[in-house]
Amino acid sequence: MKLFFRFGVIILSVFLLSNILGCAQEANGPARITVWHWMTDRDAAFQELAKRYEASTGIKVNFELYAPSDQYSQKVRAAVQGETLPDIFGVLGEPRDFASFVKAGYILDLTPYMDENNSAWRNKFFAKALAVDEFSEGNSYGVKPGTYGVPIDIMTIQMVYNKALLKKLGLNPDCPPRTFAEFLDLGKKLKEAKLQGLVSGWGEAWMISCLANNYAFNIMGKDKVLATIRGEVPYTDPDWIKVLDLFRQMQESGVLADGVVTMINKTAEQLFANEKAVFAFNGSWCVNVYKAMNPSLDYAAMLPPKVSDKFPMAVWGGAGSSFMVNANSKNKEAAVSFLKWFTDTDQQTYLAQVTNNLPANKESLRNIPEALKSFFKAMDNSTHPSIWGVSESPTVIETLNKGLQSIIIGEKTPEQVAAQVQRVKERELAKKR
């Protein structure tokens, strides 16, 4: 009986102790925060920061990598259906996809956290980075105005040029072509030097669409571009014909690399890194890629050569990657606290130095590589579809992208492509009506 009594006391003690520890854990925060991401090149740095956070707070952060991005997106969609989203995750896709997650109640509104303490957290970020994760008053998606994501880095998509190869063409390596006419003039020199001109992942259609959009802003201005998306200006407008014709001119002048229409971006990056091409159209993430492929590569970023002086040249930029907090997570307060730490100056500086990505934190730009600085200079010229408040139909975008490719290979004229895109646009508008 004494033995039985002692055994019972031990069991009761263990039970009480576990409850005490459980209550203490609840008071001090969760033992683990789970983060899903797709960023293969940053996973090692994320794991290191997770160790530092656990050492500082006692809270374990588990970064789980699901790559490539298509696999990651499938994982997130499946988790929505199964109600198994992690504490922190990201949404890849169009602004409408982001909006659908918010409206369905899967993403926490971070506005109160951003605005507390005189907007201390908000003020750490570049405004254009944060804008990608915000919905403004009167947005076309019907989302309550607010901030729903946390940018962890920023990016711009521009042209880059090889300084040594530019010098070989007889140009000043510090003065790349500034106008579209100057750019086209290089076609003959490229052929004589037996060099490839512009490489890019135009086989991944969104990249060719990006450059076309840059030139649309330069030729007709933002207001007219957005009016086109709303259906108020047709794609057969003379300004859109001008935009489309630029791709015909680039092909005929010889400034485009062979096979650029079907080229994936990884191939384009290899060609540029191995100094087989003078120019590339790529995002600031390429700095890390080129460093791995050719550490001695001497290059810089440049704005796409302008066509018009009427409107400024715009490039896509803003938040490169962002994290969102699961609104239904029992750990959401701890998740917010972690993201505040994760985006603070020291951690952002570490990420910038280790991964060669531009930090979203304004105070973390010190000691970044020169090539990365040249990308940062274009932030004032940056825009992004996610901040326009309206978005084009995916069917229209696909038709435009395929049309641009057909212009380059000589299958269709700019006028034919414009008419085809407009027919698709009118069908999409009719569906909405």
Walk me through this protein's architecture.
- The termini are far apart.
- The chain is α/β, with parallel strands linked by helices and 433 residues long.
- Helix 12 (238-253) crosses helix 19 and helix 18 (394-408) runs antiparallel to helix 19.
- It is built from 19 helices and twelve strands.
- The strands form three sheets. Strands 3, 6, 7, 8, 9, 10, 11 and 12 form an eight-stranded mixed β-sheet that branches. Strands 1-2 form a two-stranded parallel sheet. A two-stranded antiparallel sheet has the order 4-5.
- The radius of gyration is 25 Å and the shape is globular.
- It has helices at residues 2-28, 43-57, 69-82, 95-103, 111-119, 127-131, 163-168, 180-184, 186-192, 206-220, 222-230, 238-253, 265-273, 286-293, 332-342, 345-355, 370-376, 394-408, 414-432, and strands at 32-37, 60-65, 88-89, 134-135, 146-147, 150-162, 196-199, 277-283, 299-302, 315-325, 358-359, 382-383.
Short description:
The chain has 433 residues and is α/β, with parallel strands linked by helices. It is 50% helix and 14% strand.
